[in-house]
Amino acid sequence: MNTKEKIMDVALNMFSERGYEAVSIRDICGEVGIKESTLYYHFKNKKDILDSLVEKFRAHIDGLLCHIGEFNSHPESKSDKDISENMMDTYMMDSYLFDPFCNLMLRLMMIEQFHNEEIRVLYEKTLFTDPYKIQMKVFKMLAANGVIADEEVEWTVREYHSYMTMLTFKYLLNGDLTPGRKKAYKKEVHDYLMRRFNS
Amino acid sequence: MNTKEKIMDVALNMFSERGYEAVSIRDICGEVGIKESTLYYHFKNKKDILDSLVEKFRAHIDGLLCHIGEFNSHPESKSDKDISENMMDTYMMDSYLFDPFCNLMLRLMMIEQFHNEEIRVLYEKTLFTDPYKIQMKVFKMLAANGVIADEEVEWTVREYHSYMTMLTFKYLLNGDLTPGRKKAYKKEVHDYLMRRFNS
DNA sequence: TCGCCTCTCTAACAGTTGTTAGAGAGATTT
DNA sequence: AAATCTCTCTAACAACTGTTAGAGAGGCGA
User: Which nucleotide has the shortest C1'-to-CA distance from B44?
Assistant: First the structure.
């Protein structure tokens, strides 16, 4: 990890805990182990660090969404049962909520969205719009395979989406992401899936 | 509204948009129209403003929860139908989510919870634990009145709670609380209630 | 009228903020 | 060997931070 990456890593950790404005250049440099002027060799100003993080995040989720799209068009490798059990907790929200970079970016976006419209739009897309779209895609596929009825799709997706969103805010975007909270999240997801789709 | 109240009002508006640390004493005093030293006559330091807001919020929700408790013990004044339609969107979450003071406090708590354990606990209680408890109480009453089956109560509450929580984050705690977002929230609540309990 | 209480002011403090100019060290290219 | 490029440093800047000492003005009861 080079200096520029180290700066972004440290900055994200600090921004996601205390907010962008509350973190000083000296806080970041102290943690990285460089002088302030060195930071200005890699970034043109403080805002540039935030912009770079947002840009990196965009590229990151574009990659993930693209990967999910590919998976959806080649589902033959798995049985229907596997899809309903496995896909949901492996390929949908978890992949970008458990990932440390995405998780910290979401925290940062949760803080900054109130006074930064660009971040607000990205925040809404990442937590609400995109997951809903992906989940809709998956459930439509399940309906096409006869696993659930066509007319149930819309409200099944809405309920599923709301449940996962609530669990995300309650366990993954609440305080530190401790092993305990991760475990509680996984248990709740499992309990919901068992009751809703395996009974 | 006296000076102290004006300071708290302005401070809450600024804290809830930019976060506690990002707002300076001079920002607040400038907006209120007083000199910095005057602020220190009313508050012993900056942290004291935040603490006073949290204290005021605690008293505020205690009052609301108490009021809901009273209402629940005198339900005779309404018919069963009224309860299932009216109580849900009038007495449960809306009362403290639409209220401007509570809404701004929740935004502030959303920002500060990541580095303030006291606020994190209050945040979790306000958005997750308390609403779930209240909703459980209401649905148990509905079950006692034969409106829904006893064994359905737990998961009905879980689903209802998750749906309302998702809508809260999506519409009431996302960007400015515009009339448009308020209206969209109400429409989604109405659609959900119609489908889930009136079909 | 006197002193007291409540509230606001002017003026300043030491420390922190984002940012820049310019120099030096090491590696790579000419 | 000379020149260039990449990266880091020292040292400073003006503006801003939270906070305080102390004075002044208006209203109150004695």
Answer: D19
Q: Give SS3 for A62.
A: helix
From A100-104, B79-83, B107-111, the region with the lowest mean pLDDT: B79-83
Q: Is A199 exposed, middle or buried (0-12, 13-18, 19+ CB in 10 A)?
A: exposed
Tell me: the pLDDT tens digits for B24-33? 999 999 999 9
**Helix %, strand %, coil % of chain B (to 5):** 80, 0, 20
Among B19, B128, B167, select the one facing A21 at the smallest CB separation.
Answer: B19
If one counts the domains in chain B, the total is 1
Is the pLDDT at A92 greater than 80? The verdict is: no
Domain membership of residue B111 (yes or no) is yes
Q: The domain containing residue A93 runs over which residues?
A: 50-198
Asked if A127 contacts A106 with a C-beta cutoff of 8 angstroms, the reply is yes
Q: Which residue in B117, B128, B167 is closest to A170 by CB distance? A: B128
For the packed helices B130-144 and B46-73, what is the interaxial angle rounded to 10 degrees?
0
Q: Does B169 touch chain A (CB under 8 A)?
A: yes
Q: Do the domain assignments include residue A35?
A: no
CA angle B152, B157, B161 (to 5 degrees): 155
- A113-133 pLDDT, tens digit each: 999 999 999 999 999 999 999
